[in-house]
Write a structure and sequence with these properties.
The protein is α/β, with parallel strands linked by helices. It has one domain: NAD(P)-binding Rossmann-like Domain (Rossmann fold, 3-Layer(aba) Sandwich). Helices cover 29% and strands 25% of the residues. It is built from three helices and three strands. The longest helix is centred in the first third of the chain and has 9 residues.
């Protein structure tokens, strides 16, 4: 799909359990957007993988799972 160069952008919603995989599949100069944490609050990230690829990592907090579930009926 990307010819082996990696994806331009990853929208990461898993959290620490999947973050390192997202970093690994992102191209040099790409971006990882963190918008959720489904796998817990702690995990292992290798900072040199981010630096070696000159990745942009940006996180936003969108609320808790309880807040998300409370909000969903509004959109139905």
């Amino acid at each position: 799909m990307t010819g082996g160069r990696g994806v331009d952008r990853v929208i990461e919603v898993g959290g620490p359990g999947t973050l390192q995989k997202s970093i690994s599949c992102t191209r040099v100069g790409g971006a990882v957007q963190l918008i959720g944490i489904l796998t817990g609050a702690s995990g292992k990230v290798v900072p040199t993988d981010i630096m070696r690829k000159s990745l942009k990592v940006h996180g936003i907090y969108v609320g808790s799972k309880a807040m998300f579930l409370e909000m969903n009926p509004v959109f139905n």
